[in-house]
């Protein structure tokens, strides 16, 4: 594969980052050819820059030789965002992994793009602070990757997604120039444009993020239901009562059972749904909030509701939630995750539709939801080695996205678009809107080398989605 790159290009590349930080061996190329989705590609080289200046020089070199490049964190993306499906370079950020500054007075931290989410949390804890976005992949996902996808996590209900917590970003534009971008009270919001753009407009190399004090008190509840509909209605009831939990997560029976098979955290195997609810804040008033949640759940037919007695029990409840996606592979070796978001009141109807789609395509689907903000993750399990199962899974995923849009929602809440969902963008945006987005891409990246082929569907004058590459 390395022979596809000119020898002169590789020589200059090695001079920039060091010979040992350019890999072209087949084993490395295969490792960096996929993420957590079904999508696959093959880079021509993997580059490990040490700082922003090296990233800028690599981007300038790639521009001179017309070589595409894909920024990559840990490869936990679920939509094919960092997959190098057109070859070229993978910019791998594991060497840019420093927490550069923590400023408790300013309530901010400065981190490089390769810092793990959990690494930042651990660095903040001695100062009494935390970084609110907490994707389930936080042990291994990077801050740069979280920015690329505008990741959320269970606590986004109360605290918002990544875009709500980024104060400024250092970016290398496709021409190789370096700039700090921050929001302004006037002019266009370039920072907002960058977050969630999946590396298609520029490469984010470091960030200044907002941090918040650790809550004085946390209470975690497990609500057990014999009906998925009752659980969904309880979610709406809690929010309608003016209560804003830190988290309001839902799992269905299929998910509960595979979690219990994997780690036995104490979810009742015979329940149809559980809610993992967490409230946090000052001690004063929190007891009233817990009592109100218990009362609302009882009004909606809860079988049992438990409050975690200590940190160990709380951690156990969360271990089940965070391990749910991985546990799905106990059923089948492959999982495709839909990531739609709908109005909370539409959750019961959309979940019924998901069940119908699963039956139609003869697939098992386990539902895992950030239910408080209507973000559902139907996990479609199948065997990717079987072309028929794979085709059925892709069709089911598309129909689930269509169901979310028809319910007044959208096709992605936090996993990004990447390769996997780019054609589904037509479900949400008209051709004129897509044309304007392509113009922005063209203006910032005229050579089309920055993570090409992601986010936006291929132009198609006939008006129907082109064949998958």
Describe the fold and architecture:
The chain is an alpha+beta fold and 469 residues long. It folds into four domains: 2-92, Uridine Diphospho-n-acetylenolpyruvylglucosamine Reductase, domain 2; 99-213, Uridine Diphospho-n-acetylenolpyruvylglucosamine Reductase, domain 3, CATH 3.30.465.10; 217-325, Alpha-Beta Plaits; 331-447, Alpha-Beta Plaits (2-Layer Sandwich), CATH 3.30.70. It has helices at 7-17, 26-31, 52-65, 117-124, 143-149, 156-159, 190-194, 228-240, 253-263, 286-299, 311-322, 324-327, 347-360, 387-406, 431-444, and strands at 22-23, 45-47, 69-72, 89-92, 99-103, 108-112, 129-130, 166-172, 178-181, 203-210, 212-213, 217-225, 247-252, 273-281, 302-307, 334-337, 364-370, 375-382. The strands form four sheets. It has a seven-stranded antiparallel beta sheet with strand order 15-12-14-13-17-18-16, sandwiched between helices. It has a five-stranded antiparallel beta sheet with strand order 5-6-10-8-9. Strand 8 (166-172) and strand 9 form a beta hairpin. Helix 13 packs antiparallel against helix 14 (387-406). Mean pLDDT is 94; it is low at 461-469.
């Amino acid at each position: 594969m390395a022979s596809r790159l000119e020898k002169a290009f590789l020589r200059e590349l090695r001079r920039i980052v060091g010979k040992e930080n350019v890999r072209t061996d087949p084993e490395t190329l295969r490792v960096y050819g996929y993420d957590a989705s079904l999508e696959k590609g093959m880079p021509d080289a993997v580059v490990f820059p040490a700082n922003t200046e090296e990233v800028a020089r690599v981007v300038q070199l790639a521009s001179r030789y017309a070589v595409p490049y894909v920024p990559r964190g840990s490869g936990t993306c679920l939509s094919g965002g960092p997959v190098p499906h057109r070859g070229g370079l993978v910019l791998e950020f594991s060497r840019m992994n420093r927490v550069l500054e923590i400023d408790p007075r300013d309530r901010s931290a400065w981190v490089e793009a390769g810092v793990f989410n959990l690494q930042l949390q651990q660095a903040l804890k001695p100062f009494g602070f935390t970084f609110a976005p907490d994707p389930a992949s936080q042990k291994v996902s990077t801050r740069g990757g979280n920015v690329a996808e505008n990741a959320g996590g269970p606590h986004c209900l109360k605290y918002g997604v990544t875009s709500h917590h980024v104060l400024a970003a250092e970016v290398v534009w496709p021409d190789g120039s370096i700039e700090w971008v921050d929001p302004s009270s006037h002019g266009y919001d370039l920072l907002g444009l960058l977050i969630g753009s999946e590396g298609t407009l520029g490469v984010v190399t470091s960030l200044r993020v907002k941090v918040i004090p650790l809550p004085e008190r946390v209470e975690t509840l497990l609500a057990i239901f014999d009906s998925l509909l009752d659980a969904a209605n309880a979610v709406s009831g809690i929010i309608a009562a003016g209560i804003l939990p830190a988290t309001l997560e839902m799992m269905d029976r299929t998910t509960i059972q595979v979690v219990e098979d994997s780690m036995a955290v104490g979810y009742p195997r015979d329940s149809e749904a559980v809610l993992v609810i967490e409230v946090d804040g000052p001690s004063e008033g929190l007891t009233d909030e817990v009592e109100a949640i218990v009362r609302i759940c009882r009004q909606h037919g809860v079988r049992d509701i438990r409050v975690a007695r200590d940190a160990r029990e709380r951690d156990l409840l969360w271990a089940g939630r965070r391990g749910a996606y991985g546990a799905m592979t106990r059923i089948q070796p492959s999982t495709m995750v839909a990531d739609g978001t709908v109005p909370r009141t539409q959750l019961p109807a959309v979940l019924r539709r998901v069940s119908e789609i699963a039956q139609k395509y003869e697939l098992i689907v386990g539902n895992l939801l950030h239910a408080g903000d209507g973000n559902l993750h139907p996990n479609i399990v199948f065997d990717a080695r079987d072309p028929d199962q794979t085709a059925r899974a892709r069709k089911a995923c598309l129909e689930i996205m269509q169901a979310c849009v028809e319910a007044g929602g959208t096709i992605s809440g936090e996993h990004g678009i990447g390769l996997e969902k780019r054609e589904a963008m037509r479900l949400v945006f008209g051709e004129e809107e897509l044309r304007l987005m392509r113009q922005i891409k063209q203006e910032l990246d005229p050579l089309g080398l920055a993570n090409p082929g992601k986010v936006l569907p291929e132009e198609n004058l006939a008006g129907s989605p082109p064949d998958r590459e």
